[in-house]
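Key result, reporting period 2: structure in, sequence out.
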């Protein structure tokens, strides 16, 4: 299963939520850092022996494989293992490397979607013409992360509108879910957002909330440790897993070669 995670604009917490989602996923998962603006994982994460990751091994080395036209490129030799056991594919260091990867994004999307385990891919801010669009098209589900603010909702609506327009023009999009990073006591934002989207005729499913939990988010930004297993952040993301899975299961089979 390929889960793509994105923001419509700004920095609502995509990377943090993606890292936690991959870590709490109940079956083996790979976290892929595909933010075209430049990856974070290679900068902060460490291996079990506290070595930094090899920034060249990951999407860049996978792209080299893909460019050689290998049928069925596999992720195995490009993954690294973080302290704690999480498998990751490091992202690009500089935005120009993304542009250089050009047409191989389609092959990378296929490789990610064919991987045997669950793949959680952070595609950063999803803009019109983003080079990682083929990865999003190959996903089983696209999750937008938003904050409960009017501007955040407006940008989400605009992104959903162009996804709908692209679908009408014949492109393939996965089912779309939205998660709201908000105060754990906030019980109204998800309902308000769902009503707003329904009113606009946009078919995105508001799946729930991710707890706004700065302490746990700081730990995630450094190194995911056991210390936050019981945090509101981790518990809130864990409770989203079933709805993410159910939404991914609604993807109509047969639309994308896989
Ligand atoms: N659930 C959360 N609770 C509190 N702070 C968060 C949460 N998620 C992210 N943050 C903080 O928000 C900032 C942006 O997070 P990040 O995950 O890098 O966002 P993005 O990938 O959308 O740019 C960071 O300072 C991060 O620690
Ligand atoms: Mg990010």
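The corresponding designed sequence is given below.
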């Amino acid at each position: 299963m390929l889960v793509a995670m994105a923001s419509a604009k700004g920095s609502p917490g995509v990377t943090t939520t993606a890292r936690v989602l991959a870590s709490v996923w109940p079956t083996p998962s790979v976290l892929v850092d595909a933010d075209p603006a430049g990856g974070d994982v290679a900068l902060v994460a460490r291996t079990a022996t506290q070595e930094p990751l090899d920034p060249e091994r990951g999407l860049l080395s996978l792209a080299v494989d893909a460019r050689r036209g290998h049928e069925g490129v596999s992720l195995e030799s490009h993954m690294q293992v973080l302290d704690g056991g999480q498998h990751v594919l490091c992202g690009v260091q500089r935005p120009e490397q993304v542009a250089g990867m050009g047409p191989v994004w389609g092959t990378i999307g296929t490789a990610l979607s064919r991987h045997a385990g669950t793949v959680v891919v952070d595609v950063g801010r999803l803009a019109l013409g983003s080079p990682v669009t083929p990865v999003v098209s190959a996903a089983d589900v696209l999750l937008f992360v938003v904050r409960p603010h009017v501007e955040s909702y407006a940008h989400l609506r605009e992104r959903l509108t162009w996804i709908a327009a692209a679908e009408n023009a014949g492109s393939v999009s996965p089912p779309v879910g939205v998660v709201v990073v908000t105060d754990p006591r906030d019980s109204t934002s998800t309902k308000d957002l769902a009503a707003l989207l329904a009113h606009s005729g946009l078919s995105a499913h508001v799946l729930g909330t991710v707890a706004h939990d700065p302490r746990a988010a700081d730990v995630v930004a450094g190194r995911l440790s056991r210390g936050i297993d019981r945090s509101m952040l981790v518990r809130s993301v864990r409770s989203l897993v079933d709805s993410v899975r159910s939404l991914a299961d609604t993807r109509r089979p047969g639309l994308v070669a896989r």
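The pocket of adenosine-5'-diphosphate (ligand 1) is lined by residues 7, 11-16, 181, 210-214, 217-218, 221, 233 (CB under 6 Å). Confidence is low (pLDDT under 50) at residues 254-258. This case is discussed further under Risks and Mitigation.
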